[in-house]
Amino acid sequence: ARRFHVAENPMVEQIETLLPGANCGGCGYSGCHDFACKCADASSLSGFFCPGAGADVMAKIAKIKGVDNTSVTPKIAVLKCYGTCANRPQRANYDGVQSCALLSMIAVGSTDCAYGCLGCGDCVQACPWDAIHIDPTTGLPAVSETKCVGCGKCVTACPRTILELRSKGPKGRRVWVACSNRDKGAIARKECSAACIGCGRCSRTCPFEAITIANNLAYIDPEKCRLCRKCVPECPTGAIHCVNFPIPVSAERPQ
Description:
The chain is an alpha+beta fold. It contains 8 helices and 8 strands; from the N terminus they run H-H-H-E-H-H-E-E-H-E-E-H-H-E-E-E. A two-stranded antiparallel sheet has the order 1-4. Helix 1 (10-18) packs across helix 2 and helix 1 (10-18) packs antiparallel against helix 3. The longest helix has 11 residues, at 55-65.
């Protein structure tokens, strides 16, 4: 042990004991030990954040290093699809290996939509925090508000990239387009009744220019969005979703 001993910064062990040990990679490094080493060697904690540990632990790490703590906006995974069993008719039955990655290579899926959730649960398997489960009613992944730390493992695991990390927002309030269908409006609507049809009504309504239309699909920029929700009742298909708002939208969202 003496002959092969490698000297290590004593702060590494102190920092690593504070980390969750999930090795999720959400920090951008290969694991908790690597993250601890980088934190110990860095002159400041700017750009460093462990989503699994949270802001409180980062404050403790800053205290160990004797540097100022840097605030990082907490994030959460959102599903850019609302192709539930009711909204997206099933056209085929897949009874092979339950893998979204495999299914996406051999077929469109069990529905006509080539962009929506495949429902095999690769994101569920990838999540080290037990924060995602397939809802048996909708057939879609449901992300836990309390368990999701925004590590991004589910985003990487999804072969159709329909999971996105977005800011949790003040008091957990968020507005996003729950659709990834890039087909033209009439085709998209036939494939899923809740699909975005790229009509642009939301974009024209937004007073902050936070919504853009590209490839027949609307996207809400979380950096520009001020959570006014004027776009929500304008969407004719209900593709724009909002959560954790105590006051309902002034006009009813179309069904």
